[in-house]
Design brief:
The chain has about 180 residues and is an alpha/beta fold. The chain is built from 7 helices and 8 strands. The protein has helices at about 10-25, 55-65, 70-80, 90-95, 100-110, 125-135, 145-155, and strands at about 40, 45, 50-55, 80-85, 115, 140, 160-165, 165-170. The strands form 2 sheets. The chain has a 6-stranded mixed β-sheet, sandwiched between helices. Helix 2 crosses helix 5.
């Protein structure tokens, strides 16, 4: 008498072959993103003075609340020329905030700020910033949003600028004056 678990039975052979095909599909070729040639280990060689800083909406609002001049404070933090940049999505977000944030909007329209056109249509400004940074890794991202900072930390070679103790601080960029002390 043959056991129902015998490997010679046709249904068991079919099950075994299906299992093998499933494991082959799982072990199939993987898609691995190509490493950026500008990175030397974790150091981004595209970053250098003059620095281009992508500014988020809440960074402008917190700078106004804490009475910090954005351009001067960036230069004090980075010890070099810094150009604040604003994407169309961030500008649209500032315009949607309305009358309460008109000072921030007027500051964002300052001629010292460089306007960067983005080709996203009505997307969330954080998604736009992350997309810009992953596409071109020549920016520093200025934001006070913890969720956005955690998303940007996942992109190698891109430092974040944020506000702490009434001054700007840069993380993942050791040569900056405002960088947190190691050790």
């Amino acid at each position: 008498m043959i056991s129902p678990k015998d490997i010679r039975l046709k249904e068991n052979v079919v099950k075994r072959e299906e299992k093998r095909e499933a494991t082959k599909k799982k072990k199939g070729p993987r898609h691995v993103e190509q490493a950026v040639s500008a990175l030397f280990f974790q150091y981004n060689t595209q970053l250098g003075p003059p620095y281009y800083v992508l500014v988020d909406t809440n960074f402008i609002n917190f700078s106004i609340r804490q009475k910090l001049d954005i351009v001067r404070s960036m230069m004090d933090c980075l010890l070099a020329k810094a150009t604040p940049c604003i994407t169309n999505c961030v500008m649209g977000e500032l315009e949607k905030l309305g009358q309460k944030y008109k000072v921030a909007l007027r500051l964002a329209k300052d001629p010292r700020f460089e306007r960067i056109p983005c080709n996203c249509k009505g997307t969330y400004a954080d998604d736009c910033l992350v997309r810009m940074v992953t596409q071109w890794r020549c920016f520093i991202v200025a934001t006070c949003d913890k969720e956005l900072r955690s998303r940007i930390r996942k992109v190698p070679g891109v430092p974040c600028m944020y506000i702490s103790n009434y001054r700007y601080t840069v993380e993942r960029m050791p040569e900056a004056y405002g960088a947190p002390k190691q050790g």
